[in-house]
Structure formats: structure tokens, C-alpha cells
């Protein structure tokens, strides 16, 4: 059972995606990820994009910790329903609409956002079988929408090699947690 770890809604239990189609980020990995983002001081007032959102647990965690706006992007029906439930719960705690859900494929969503849309933090947890080529295409489409000083966090299987990053973005850190590796990227 997933929960919000800290912030305004700390301890709140989240709605999970039914079935085995998603791979939730463990509390251990989520806690390490947000400790690092807190150390970078990038969450307060940030515009956050959670791609391949699953239940939306990473995005609502960011909202709980002070993000100004969070967009959850998820294409699967059951996962999008869980995102909506978790977004509604977070928005109720905050007393305003901070978290929005977009039921869309990631590629479609990124190709439709306005040119001037910018994000400070992007959280990406694509399905582990996603090949490097489509991942690199998604990252390349994302680059023009990264604010100065933005941080992109990509969660992948620790068995996956490092992708060839597209122009405009580079890795500045990574950390392995058992089967999971977090890649930290920034615009250049």
C-alpha cells in the first residue's frame, strides 16, 4: 500500500492501480528521490510533470511537499482513474487545484502542450520494457519545455544500460536501489 511520505498530506494512503500492470515505486526509492530533490531545493513552488504516472504517487508527493502545479500524464484507464482519485485527495488537502490529470499517451501530451509550457521538475517512470529509442525521443521532445535549472528524474531497471541522452540534456547523477536505478538529468 502506497502512501504520501511527507509534507501537507504526509501519511495519507494512496489509491493503487488494480492488477499487475504497473510497478509502483517503493517507499524506499521514493523517500531517497525526494530527499535528493529537497536537497536540490527544487520542489517549493515548482511546476512538476509526472510522465507515465501510474497511480500518480510521485506527482502527489511533490504537491504535498510544496510544488505549485503538478501534471500527471497516464494513458491506461485503471491507472488514470487511480491518478484522478489521488489528485482529488491531494487537491482537497491543499484546498485548491494543484494536481491535474491528463489521460494521454506521453508522446501525444508532449506534442500538444503550448510552446511556452515549462517544468522545473520532471518525474519519469516508464515501463521497464520501453526501449531506449522511444525514451530518447520523449526526452528530446521534453528538452524545450525544461526551465532553467530543471531536474529530470528517470526511473529504470538497474539492468538497463545508460541511454544515449539527446542533445540539450545530460546526466549529472545516478543511484541504484536494488532492481531500480534513478538517473538525474539537467538541461544544458
TrEMBL record:
One GO molecular function term of this record is:
16S rRNA (guanine(966)-N(2))-methyltransferase activity
The keyword Transferase belongs to this UniProt entry's keyword annotation: yes
- Superkingdom of source: Bacteria
Entry keyword set:
Methyltransferase, Transferase
Q: InterPro entries from the entry? A: RNA_MeTrfase_RsmD (IPR004398), SAM-dependent_MTases_sf (IPR029063)
One family name in Pfam for this protein: Cons_hypoth95
Q: What is its EC number?
A: 2.1.1.171
State whether keyword Cell inner membrane applies.
no
NCBIfam families from the entry? Answer: 16S rRNA (guanine(966)-N(2))-methyltransferase RsmD
Which PANTHER family does the protein's record reference?
METHYLTRANSFERASE (PTHR43542)
Give the protein's recorded name: 16S rRNA (Guanine(966)-N(2))-methyltransferase RsmD
Tell me what organism the protein belongs to. Arthrobacter vasquezii
Amino acid at each position: 500500500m502506497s502512501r504520501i511520505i511527507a509534507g501537507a498530506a504526509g501519511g495519507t494512503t494512496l489509491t493503487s492501480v488494480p492488477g499487475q500492470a504497473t510497478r509502483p515505486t517503493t517507499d524506499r526509492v521514493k523517500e531517497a528521490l525526494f530527499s535528493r530533490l529537497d536537497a536540490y531545493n527544487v520542489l517549493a513552488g515548482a511546476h512538476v510533470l509526472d510522465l507515465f504516472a501510474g497511480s500518480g504517487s510521485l506527482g502527489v508527493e511533490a504537491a504535498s511537499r510544496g510544488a505549485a502545479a503538478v501534471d500527471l500524464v497516464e494513458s491506461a484507464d485503471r491507472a488514470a482513474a487511480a491518478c484522478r482519485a489521488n489528485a482529488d485527495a491531494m487537491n482537497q488537502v491543499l484546498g485548491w487545484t494543484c494536481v491535474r490529470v491528463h489521460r494521454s499517451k506521453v508522446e501525444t501530451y508532449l506534442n500538444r502542450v503550448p510552446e511556452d509550457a515549462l517544468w522545473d521538475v520532471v518525474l519519469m517512470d516508464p515501463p521497464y520494457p520501453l526501449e531506449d529509442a522511444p525514451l530518447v525521443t520523449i526526452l528530446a521532445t521534453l528538452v524545450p519545455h525544461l526551465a532553467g535549472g530543471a531536474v529530470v528524474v528517470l526511473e529504470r531497471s538497474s539492468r538497463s544500460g545508460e541511454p544515449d541522452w539527446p542533445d540539450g540534456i545530460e546526466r549529472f547523477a545516478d543511484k541504484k536501489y536494488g532492481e531500480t536505478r534513478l538517473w538525474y538529468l539537467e538541461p544544458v
